[in-house]
Amino acid sequence: MRTAVQLSWRLLRGGGRNSMLGTFLTLAAVAVSTGLLLFAVGADHAFLQRAHADAWRHPGGTSADPSAIEALSTDYVQGKPITVVDLAALKGDAPVPPGMPRFPKPGEVWTSPALARLMRELPADQLAERFPHRAGTLGRGALVHPGELVAVVGRTADDPAMTADRDAVEHLGTSGGPTRIDRFATGASWGAGIYLWLAGLASVLMVVPLLVFGGAAARLTVARRDARLAALRLVGATPGQVVAITAAEAVLTAAAGAVAGLALYAAAVPALARITIAGGGWFAGDLWPGPAVLAGVLAGVPLLVGASAVAGLRRVVVGPLGVARRETPPGMRAARIVALLAVVAAFGAVGGGLVDMGRAGMVILMVFLMLAFLTINFAGPWVVAVIGHLTVAAARGPARLLAGRRLVDDPRSAWRTVAGVALTGFIAGFFALLNTPASTGEARDELRLAVPYARSAAVAEQARGRLAGLDADVSVRRTETGDGAPAAAGPATATGVVVVEVSGAAAVDRARTALSGLVPGRTATAPADDEVTGDRLLADLRTGALIVLAVSFLLAITSAGITGASAVLDRRQAYAMLRLAGTPLSVLDRARRQETLIPLAVMGGGSLLAGLFFSLPFAQGFGLSGLAGLAGFVVLGFGGIIGASALSRPLLRSVTADPAPRPD
To answer: How confident is the model at residue 248 (pLDDT cuts 50, 70, 90)?
Structure first.
């Protein structure tokens, strides 16, 4: 292996400037792939850490030998939710909550740093008076994100707040308990579970194109490398030596690229931590996957690149003379397109029922998305070859004829140039119909507090006393009971809602503070509070879609630029000979652009339609946001490819300026 490494280094140094440039292109491709792969893996790790930090607040099942009582409620200030965890010890061995040095004593309040800061900034009657006797600050282990508002309140076991019933079932993860426990829950809550599944879906949409691009990185400047290795075979190198040389060159280059990708990701982490999801940014440490996963990525990327490079050596090992003579490889089979059509047909048969299958449906959807990506990439070269034949048949000028012949002769190389944008088209199409608008409900300066109707008059009178000094109107409304019985069944079974009407956001927060603890286990809420969780989730869906599209476009444009430059280097002898034969540089440049744009138009449009098809079972309507997304894809896709292609023009001029043979 040492000899193979030394020989690879000698061949690389002796290949001249163009050889070094080709190696640099491969290194850059691997660096971008590794950086974006770490982002996808790091995002999954971060959401898992959030789920762990959120789990302990949600009371689990009742313990047979409890040591504490736990209850959960949600208060609000300035329209932001405040997670309130009430704890009461039953024994001396009550479990210590995460992020705290000990179990809270009765009357103590521990707050998150963001809540403590807000308590200092706002007038006391708007927030701080709700949480008197503040004893300490919650640590990292208790928080989902740095800006989260959390309060842990210590109580006695017979405190009315620990005996009064709350919602029988958690309502969107905002309330629960009181429950007798012996340990804190560790499983993902309802809300955290949704984000974990969405993060998994986003990872599939990002990771599969990244792996495709990473594998393609090993095949950059493939023609030049094959010719060099074929020459070695012809002068006596054994197949094993050729494989060792190729593997050494690919793995060493990819290892350097992987380290560069790690550095790129490390530089991007501070900016990534500012992305707002689920109400806040991220702890930078959460965005770093564990040491084992990080080591696996850094080792796996070079191995993937090396395996991809070795897999392309069959022609060199078996038939080096054909490579040296630059014979056209045999055509590809139509089974490639059949595989894609089979995946589309299978999804059409089962896709309509995925919505009703819950988590199982999500898993099946992820599998189909992976298969769709892989089969699009598998069928791409075959489709490009067909496009090439049609382009040759319809050519009316030298530029288009040259472009068509290039597509026919090397469809795999042409596909690598447009694969990134084609796969991004699938993602853009998939998200185009998932454009549920945010709630348009109007916020009202009104607070509601549910109580048994028999107590509603007394509670309303107490509320008036607490609200003295505020311009507030207190009234009582009758509604249905919790079990669905009509309100007319009688005051003993009806539910009352104490309604407090005030004017202005500051007055709402003052009223919330005044009413805090009026009904144990219940908080006064505004109509807009019920929409906070849903609106936040919808906003996060849109943010996630934009992030996935941004990553995909970055990958696509980078792929187009790097593979385009690599293709010019691979064909520099052909370009130089055509220049010597009198072909104008403008014709060569037009041919180079057309061999990219023609398959891009066909494959980009086809993959976009495929993405639309896969999103139909989950479609929420095709509105303006969907149109904007598709229009943005078309503009960014074609504009990015044209821009990346333009970067290869100076290289084309350079390789055709001097057609003299160079060391290779």
So the answer is: confident
Which residue reads 């219940």 in tokens? 522
pLDDT at 118 over 90: yes
- The C-alpha atoms of residue 531 and residue 41 are separated, in whole angstroms, by 31
Q: Which two tokens stand for residue 422?
A: 């084609």
- pLDDT at position 22 is 65
Q: How far apart are alpha carbons 317 and 128 in whole angstroms?
A: 76
Q: Comparing 217-231, 246-260, 342-356, which segment has the lowest mean pLDDT?
A: 217-231
Closest CA to 417 of 524, 586, 560, 255: 560
* Average pLDDT taken over every residue of the chain: 79
Are 226 and 323 contacting, i.e. CB atoms less than 8 angstroms apart? yes
Question: Taking Cα atoms as reference points, which of 424, 60, 64, 24 lies closest to residue 210?
Answer: 424
Q: What is the pTM of this model?
A: 0.77
* CA-only gyration radius of the chain, Å: 32
What is the spatial distance between Cα 287 and Cα 274, in angstroms, rounded to a whole number? 11
Going by the DSSP 8-state scheme, the letter that residue 174 receives in this structure is: S
- H or E stretch including 70? strand 68-77
Determine contact, residues 245/4, Cβ cutoff 8 Å.
Answer: yes
DSSP run (H or E) holding 505: helix 505-515
Can you tell me the distance from the alpha carbon of 390 to that of 172, in angstroms, rounded to the nearest whole number?
56
CA 308 from chain centre, in angstroms, equals 26
8-state DSSP, 61:
S
Q: Which of 71, 205, 46 is nearest to 549 (CA)?
A: 205
DSSP SS3 for 443: coil
Q: What is the pLDDT of residues 376-388, one digit of tens each?
A: 888 888 898 899 8
- The model's pLDDT over 554-605, given as tens digits with 9 standing for 90+, comes to 777 777 777 777 777 777 777 888 888 888 888 888 888 888 888 888 887 8
CA-closest candidate to residue 50, choices 215, 286, 241: 286
Summarize pLDDT for 306-332 with one digit per residue, the tens.
777 666 555 544 455 444 445 555 566
Helix (H) or strand (E) holding 124: none
Work out whether the CA dihedral 336, 337, 340, 341 comes out positive or negative. Answer: negative
pLDDT of residue 624: 56
User: Which residues, 6 or more positions from 123, have their beta carbon under 8 angstroms from its beta carbon?
Assistant: none
pLDDT greater at residue 642 or residue 283? 283
Q: Which of 596, 272, 217, 604 is nearest to 427 (CA)?
A: 604
Q: Is the peptide bond before 178 cis (omega within 30 degrees of 0)?
A: yes
Phi, psi at 652, each rounded to 5°: -60, -45
* Contact (Cβ atoms closer than 8 angstroms) between residue 416 and residue 219: yes
Residue 82 has a pLDDT of 93
| Structure-token pair, residue 166 | 């709350």
**For residue 426, what are its two tokens?**
């699938």
Contact 544, 536 (CB under 8 A): no
For residue 520, which of 578, 462, 577 has the smallest C-alpha distance? 462
Burial 506-528 (b: 16+ CB within 10 A, else e): ebbbbbbbbbbebbbbbbbbbeb
Q: What CA–CA distances, in Å, run from 81 to 99, 148, 174? A: 20, 9, 9
| CA gap 223, 324 in Å, rounded | 10
| Kind of pairing between the strands at 446-452 and 495-501 | antiparallel
The two three-digit tokens of residue 601, written as one number: 């138009």
| pLDDT for 540 | 82
Closest Cα partner for 147 from 276, 245, 20?
A: 276
Beta-carbon count within 10 A of 217 CB: 32
